[in-house]
Amino acid sequence: MSLSQTLAPAHILAIAPYQPGKPISELAREFGLDPTVIIKLASNENPLGCSGRVREALSEAAALMQGRYPDPNGFDLKSVLAERYDVPMSWLTLGNGSNDLLELASLAFLDEGTSAVYAQHAFMVYRLATQARGARHIMVAARDYGHDLDAMFEAIAEDTRLVFIANPNNPTGTFLPAGEVEHFLTRVEDRYGDRVAVLLDEAYNEFLDPAERFDSARWVHRFSNLIVTRTFSKAYGLAGLRVGYALAQERLTDLLNRVRQPFNVNALAQAAARVALADEDFVQQTYEMNRVGRIQLSDGFRAAGLDFVPSHTNFVLVRVGDAARVNQGLLRQGVIVRPVAGDGLPEHLRVTVGLPEENRRFLSTLVDVLAAP
Ligand SMILES: Cc1ncc(COP(=O)(O)O)c(C=O)c1O
């Protein structure tokens, strides 16, 4: 028996670690490529970077850093979030990215005697966070690559404490309209009251078309078992700073904060997020660039005769056949996208919408790789 087998419990040994998008520097080293010619469309990052106002705020905040810990309660950032969503500050939790909030929810509600429900092909971290707690998984088969909320409702068991819903979903890009989510929340509350928490993960909310958007934050007033999470990593371009937030009534927020590290969000991230929220022009510019880029990718896939899942996010899931081979071909040409075999999709690749030139280069490289013997 190896050291790790004697140290870690079986549910930890069973974890297959998260496979992040390959960093540019790593690909450059592996293939001896010039890093400046590599394009990365693998982590759903913002190709515009972040707003100029954020960059200025970061320089100022960096100059003021004086060896102090960050504000453990994130007062300034929570103040602007509370105003924006019209909730008390006691309904907000900040996270080291919204990934942190998914972990906090699993820490607060799950243990070995409980289960979590989530959808097949949903964000991988739901599985990892459930597994890390030793809780039981109830993975519900996807419908048309998306969540089947009726089946998820039926799958809730006596020991279920947490249901994860990604809307829109990663890696498939599917979207559940307001009415379906509201119906699900109502049914869960009617049948289970406060015994089952629902975490509605809206990491890609800002990429929805205006007609699709709905005010899920208002539902937090109605549903005492609901947690809504959002992030600054995607539309706001702060992926490297790691900051996200959760909205939930005070009782749930209190539970999340019991398991939170006191200083989980660093000072620069707090300062940047506050300024990022105020720069609506940047978010609009991001939305527009993404809308156009998503059409560019979708048209390119259609022209190449490839099936893809219509996307409501800043990435598109495309079926390429032998995805491992195609991925290697793309990597050799300096194009990083995301294989999703670990999500149960061995024939697909997930491609983040990039700048128009990056999308063009990706599409032409893809066509070349697919044509190669
Ligand atoms: C659905 C979903 N939720 C949450 C996250 C976590 O992002 P972050 O921790 O950067 O906020 C991601 C990141 O890819 C995601 O796709």
Structure notes:
It is a single chain. This protein has helices at 3-7, 10-13, 24-31, 52-64, 75-85, 98-109, 124-132, 149-155, 178-192, 216-222, 250-258, 267-278, 280-303, 323-332, 356-371; strands at 39-40, 92-95, 115-119, 136-140, 160-166, 197-201, 226-231, 244-247, 308-309, 315-319, 335-336, 338-340, 345-352. By secondary structure, it is α/β, with parallel strands linked by helices. The chain folds into two domains: 3-49 and 281-371, Aspartate Aminotransferase, domain 1 (Alpha-Beta Complex), CATH 3.90.1150.10; 53-279, Aspartate Aminotransferase, domain 2 (3-Layer(aba) Sandwich). The chain has a seven-stranded mixed beta sheet, sandwiched between helices. A four-stranded antiparallel beta sheet has the order 9-10-13-12, covered by helices on one side. Helix 5 runs parallel beside helix 12 (267-278). The relative contact order is 0.16. The mean pLDDT is 96. Bound molecules: pyridoxal-5'-phosphate (PLP). Pyridoxal-5'-phosphate binds at residues 44, 97-99, 123, 166, 170, 201, 203, 231, 233, 239, 244.
Q: What are its keywords?
A:
Aspartate Aminotransferase, domain 2, four-stranded antiparallel beta sheet, Aspartate Aminotransferase, domain 1, 373 residues, binds pyridoxal-5'-phosphate, seven-stranded mixed beta sheet, 16% strand, globular, alpha/beta, 2 domains, 15 helices
